[in-house]
Amino acid sequence: MVNSRRVEKLSALLKREISELLVNGVRDERIHQAMITITTVEVSGDLQHAKIFISLFGEEQKKDEVLLGLEEAKGFIRAQLARRLQMRRSPELVFKIDKGMTKGPSVLDLLNSLELERNSKDIDISSED
């Protein structure tokens, strides 16, 4: 059983090293068409799988190309991670778009509309008294 501290440490290392590789190591032009931010890295308990959640800033069409470039560069990134982190087996990487960044503003708008509705009801109740 791997302790959670080791999983957290590997997550932080993967986030740092993959960020570095995306900036300086990977030469695929598709990856550099949009601004990529690694938001979270989730490593499985057995350290064999890692989900890398990314946020992309750019045109929608280019986002698809960036994801395709990341998928094709996955083997290179994994090999570089094994070398840099001196791991016998580096985790299998899965890149996913972080939906939280796009859902945040819509959730805030919904909360604001609920607050306005509640305030208007409070005003109506106080005016009836």
Strand order of the largest sheet: 1-2-3
The residue ranges in which pLDDT falls below 50 over 5 or more consecutive positions are none
Indicate the percent of residues in helices: 55-70%
Q: Name the CATH superfamily classification of the largest domain.
A: K homology (KH) domain
Largest sheet: 3 strands, mixed
CATH topology of the largest domain, what is it called?
A: GMP Synthetase, Chain A, domain 3
Number of helical elements: 3
Oligomer description: single chain
What's the mean pLDDT score?
A: 87
Can you write the helix and strand succession as a string?
A: HEEHEH
CATH class of the largest domain: Alpha Beta
Broad shape: elongated
Secondary structure category: alpha+beta
Estimated radius of gyration: 21 Å
Report the CATH architecture of the largest domain.
2-Layer Sandwich
Taken together, the total number of domains comes to: 2
User: What is the strand content?
Assistant: 15-25%
> What is the total tally of β strands?
3
